[in-house]
Amino acid sequence: MSHPGLEEECAALRAQVAELSARLAATAPAGDGPPREERAPDPEGELAVLRAAFRDLADAVIISDHEGRLVHCNDAATKMLGAGLAHLQPADWADTYHVFLPDGVTPFPSSEFPLQRALRGEITEGVGMLARSEALPEGVSLSVSGRPIRDKDGELLGAVVVFGDVGVRKRYEAERERRRNADAQRIAAEKDRLRLARILQGFLDNLDVVVWAIDDKGICTFHDGRGVESAGLTRGQLVGQNFFEIYSGDHLQRALAGNHVHVIDDGEGVIWEHWMVPVAEEDKRISGVIGMSVNVTEPHKAKLELEGKLALIQRQQEVILNLETPIIQVWDHVLTLPMVGVVDSRRAARVTDDLLAAVARTQSRFAILDLTGVEVVDTATAAHMLNILSAVRLLGAEGIITGIRPTVAQTMISLGLDLSRVRTLATLRDGLGFAIRQLGSKGARSPS
């Protein structure tokens, strides 16, 4: 019993085969041999071959007759749509094959199905659809193309659609992009490691340092740097050796206990400055120590020399300060302070402190401020001297100014300084004589 759809499909296929054979015959070269024996056409065999090819295609294929009845649906189409061949009218396709727009929500209009459009004679390319079924509830993204099937006379015999899983391509592209990104990241990381390696190598080759590393047992795993020559070693010589057997001290144990260590030690005439950093794993376990050692012998010697020079300068400054304020006890209860040079605020403060301390310590009755060595007196200097004498007077001693030069006297007058309460004498000798006479007098007493 023949099937109308099968007959039409066979007719369409025969028409295509006949057309192909005619094209081949027209392009084949003429020969002198006997003509080939033509075999009688075998539509059933041809159809079986075509069906087998359609069935095994990776892309999904659906064929309908000119009335819209589905006559062929290969395995790929069944897998993607979740339903096999069904002799349905086009109006019923949407109820059987749950197809949506690419948004996955809006039902795809059945009149716009690429197969329907192909039956109307239209050609479609890459129409986006999403098919959802019980087997594939998340849906399959499809790209569908449709063509009308016509015989050699142009009569419409049916339609065919071919579609594929866009999600597979997207997943493939996503995986390819992921791999590309991973490769790019790996290459970038490798370049970064090479850059850091070049920086470290330049550091090790040009600076007088040693960089080393040990594991948690003290075994050296890295030992490099130009500074190893200072220790009489070659670069990498200590790799594989146990540092605990080479170096004494508890610095390594402290570092392996998780402490950052900074220490300076002297090894056979060479002074080394060490930095030791513990290396911790993700579980906080200390797996080793990274260290850097710098030969600081020359800087250390320079430091010692500088410290010696600074100490000498400090001693010289103390001598100079003592010379600036030489308080001399010339007689019992008599002090003299020769002033030389300029009296600024710093020097005036030191003179005041030292003189008051000396007056209190010696129980002096007179303090002579000799200005023989002072060439110039300005307002600030004069004020400093008066303040010194006022402070001496508060301790019960009398302040005497001696050795005022004529130019200084003129300056003091022009400045309008009040020296009425200050005893002034011409020379230091006169001041000493006055103080001694006052002390020798029976009626001598401290000024009020």
Automatic annotation (TrEMBL):
Every PAS domain range: 46-122
Record's keyword annotation contains Plastid: no
Pfam families named in the record: PAS_4, STAS
Keywords: Phosphoprotein
SUPFAM superfamilies referenced in this protein's UniProt entry, alphabetically: PYP-like sensor domain (PAS domain) (SSF55785), SpoIIaa-like (SSF52091)
Keyword Transport part of the UniProt annotation: no
InterPro entries on file: Bact_StressResp_Reg, PAS, PAS-like_dom_sf, PAS_4, STAS_dom, STAS_dom_sf
Region (Disordered): 24-43
Domain STAS: 324-435
Matching CDD domains: PAS, STAS_RsbR_RsbS_like
Protein name listed in UniProt: PAS domain-containing protein
Annotated organism of origin: Polyangium mundeleinium
Phylogenetic classification of the source organism: Bacteria, Pseudomonadati, Myxococcota, Polyangia, Polyangiales
